[in-house]
Amino acid sequence: MAAADPYHLRRAPTIHHYSNSREELGSEIGSVEFATYTVQIPPTPDNQPMEIPAENGNKMERSFTSNSMFTGGHNCATRAHLKEKMIESQTSHPRVAGANGSCCSVPGCDAQVITDKRGLDLVPCECEYKICWDCYKDVLATGDGICPGCKEPYRSHDMPELHSSRLSFGKSKARSQSGELDYSQYLFDSETNYGHGNALWPSDGVKSNDEGTSGVPKSFVEKQWKPLSRELKISTKVIVPYRLLIPVRMIVLALFLHWRVSNPNEDARWLWSMSTVCEIWFAFSWLLDQLPKLCPINRVTDLDVLKEKFETPSPSNPTGKSDLPGIDIFVSTADPEKEPPLVTANTVLSVLAADYPVEKLSCYVSDDGGALLTFEAMAEAASFASLWVPFCRKHEIEPRNPESYFNLRRDPYKNKIRPDFVRDRRRVKREYDELKVRINSLSDSIRRRSDAYNTQEELKAMKRWKEKVDDEPMDRLKIPKATWMADGTHWPGTWTVMLQPPSDEPLKGIAGDSNSMNLSEVNIRLPVLVYVSREKRPGYDHNKKAGAMNALVRASAVMSNGPFILNLDCDHYIYNSQALREGICFMMDRGGEGICYVQFPQRFEGIDPSDRYANHNTVFFDVNMRALDGIQGPVYVGTGCLFRRTAFYDFDPPRYEDHGSCFFGRQKKAAVASAPETSQSHGMEVAENQEINAPLIPRKFGNSSLFLDSVRVAAFQGLPLADNSYVKYGRPPGALTGPRPLHLAKIAEAVNVISCWYEDKTEWGQSVGWIYGSVTEDVVTGYRMHGRGWRSVYCVTERDAFRGTAPINLTDRLHQVLRWATGSVEIFFSRNNALLGGPRLKLLQRIAYLNVGIYPFTSIFLVVYCFIPAFSLFTNQFIVASLTVTFLVYLFIISVTLCILAVLEINWSGIELEEWWRNEQFWLIGGTSAHLAAVLQGLLKVIAGIEISFTLTSKSAGDDVDDEFSDLYLFKWTSLMILPCTIIMTNLIAIAVGVSRTIYSESPQWSKLLGGVFFSFWVLAHFYPFVKGLMGRRGKTPTILYVWSALLSICISLLWVAIDPPSGNNQIGGLFQLP
User: Fold this and answer.
1) Domain boundaries, position 756
2) DSSP sequence for 718-752
3) Fewest Cβ atoms nearer than 10 Å: which of 495, 503, 509, 736?
4) pLDDT tens across 515-566, in order?
5) Residues in the active site (predicted)?
6) How far apart are CA 976 and CA 818, in angstroms?
7) Is 339 labelled as part of a ligand binding site?
8) In the chain, how many domains are there?
9) Which of the residues 46, 355, 368, 650 is marked catalytic?
10) Which of 153, 179, 214 is the endpoint of a domain?
11) Is 368 in the active site?
12) 368 a known binding residue?
């Protein structure tokens, strides 16, 4: 008999059946030759020899006997049938448990999973989600081929290509001398051959281009690949009714508009025509806003997989040094009065303390105002960073903005277990308070210092004048006033490197005494910090923020050349220290080479609890942006956005690559670079094409050779890891573990590329970098990228990635909305109109961008419609001839469907009902004020060429230190308030007139009154936040204001009744007589 595996008996009915006849039995036995032989099975990860004592063998034999049923009889062969029942110890063994196949993981299904001929489990997805054949067919038929486990589409629907979960790297086992599992012993030993069916194949006869490491077949290399991000579909219980209700409401709107056009009000045709035109435009505007919301999705990232891939020791990276790509972070500021330096300093400190490899991080501060105040504040912040950053790393501080952290209203000691935390926090808090005092006093100290130096210069000039022989009058002596730095030199208004690049290896601190922090276990290195103030000269158009960002793109490309760029406003700081890793997960995932940017939602602090003016803007960030993520990606909103550097260089995504073109070709091709050491032929081809198209390169990027050399490097370093065959465009692992030195030649070249003349006769601002020509350069820049075929991703993290401030004052909020709407009007009248977009812009994405340019024009119809209820009450007419059942039914269905759609949006987006209502209110407030002004400004620019002024949004807090919401009650008059005030007063007077007319009339028409009053109250309900903003703080509004408002309304109402009394009565007041 053959030597049998002790666990061989686990395979049930593999019994040979013999015939019942004695003759046949004898003939069969006689034909068999019995021989003694031994099978040598080498030890493999799936086969570990185990010595079985004799007593255990007897137990196994007794177990076989007790678990078998014997049948037979006279002249019949005795047969043993193994029972299906097993003892608990056998079922717990991994080899025994898999004998009959695993159970399906789909809830409610207990069928066996798909197996191969050897009985091994087959899984159709890389996540190894076990599923039976019936459930698999159901998923392919009804679930769009989406895996129930990881929610990713199945790569193949053919059964032979399914993955074997028993042969994957994650399941292979080997034992080391210590008895622990040693995976490397078998996974990377190419000389060992275990034969067919084991976890490792020999390297002999296997082609190198189809294999991974050590001769392992490519299918097994792919098995260890894990996705860095996943898409989470919206529940079908919510999204299916949502999608069905949209066409239903479209049909109802079409029928209603047809009925309105077919049934005019002959008594008030002008009123009917105005209302009908407005309703048609509102239906069109609603359609533009609603159609891009058909495909909302959610996304999640896996930071553990990111760390495993890029920061874990591997054959290509034995030391485990970070292989993550570099990130250059841009922090922009322009006016130290409206953007306090302390706010900017806190943002910079949060950047320097971010949880990302120090040597891969660089921070660039753009001071477009060139203020010495901002420069010295950044110098103070850089000094404080040497204490703040190690403190954050040591105690895992969140958030890493000092101002926000020390003002937290929760217990700061929660989950802190280090005994020295209280002492360290007390010291850092004291240092930060001193930093705040120094920064706040910089303005006065700079003024006093400059006055002292200027006085000293005047004395020197007078002394030189007295020493001269000529008789020049003293009044002609001109002494220029200058701003002086602390070292006694003039402030040049240029740039400098404040923190030098860190060392390539971790640097630990020292063990402090009782008065200092113990940093012996903390990496005290700091990222690069560069202060940039670009050159400005009279006669040059510096293009505001877009020009400053392009200067940073060139300077950072020459110096650090991080393949990814994160831009932040000075008041938006990193609230989640791992936000950078979350964004990189999408860029480094499969297909990430086609992503131009990852947009994070904007979250705000310091907003009043009721969010009176919809500052949080949750409907846009949590509804519209999530929906766009399911099409081609969200729009770029100006801050909190992680860019791929090469997307700024007017290149197409890799999927549009033309292999016959060059990297710098005349036609726009894919920005795909290969490693020079691995693709020499490709490098020679690019060099040849560069030589052919050499005259075109300065025209596009400028004449900086260092910048041109950085383009290829950035393109290569921004590619995902080529650790799987699904990654078509990738770089080899371990390619970014080397140092990034900063030479003096790079610093000198950086000064050259930020000069004001560098962009002359180039394509910067036209097709390269941030796009010029609009106050909303962010939307235009994102639109250009989407038009070239790039896609973007919306990253909503569990903990807010970034937080900033928003204007809570009504006037500031209206000016902010005015700037956004003005930029949209500019987009509509420019070549960036979505109607002129290229064929690579998807249809729904085109509709979304078209809505961005059209929505301000809705204000024209909105203003007219807000006056229609007042006109109706004044003239005793209505938009329809009478309130018929048909009109009321249409109105009811349209209103109900709108409410149901709002409820479903609230369900899948996670916003609150109050937030949705606040958005509706401010949509009407902004539409009747800022949006209409934006349309007028846009028309003036197009027709008369009048440039639009840019107003910087103030980030400074109120003067009242006792009330953080003091700005909310501050009233600042602006011309944008005239039209909303007029609408409110007109509707109030119209209600009074209508009620008076109906009461005094001999034949009152209550239906027309109710229709007009209902729509007037609808308008006034939307203006409630605006009225509260006009009234200011409760208790501070003068009583005389209420008295005069009431008297004015009564007088105007009586005046209207006197001018136009009810028909058939010439007396004032109708039947009402004064005593």
Assistant:
1) 301-460+482-602+637-653+696-806
2) TSPB--STT-SS-B-TTTT-S-----HHHHHHHHH
3) 503
4) 678 888 898 999 999 999 988 888 788 888 999 999 999 999 999 999 999 9
5) 368, 778
6) 9
7) yes
8) 2
9) 368
10) 153
11) yes
12) yes
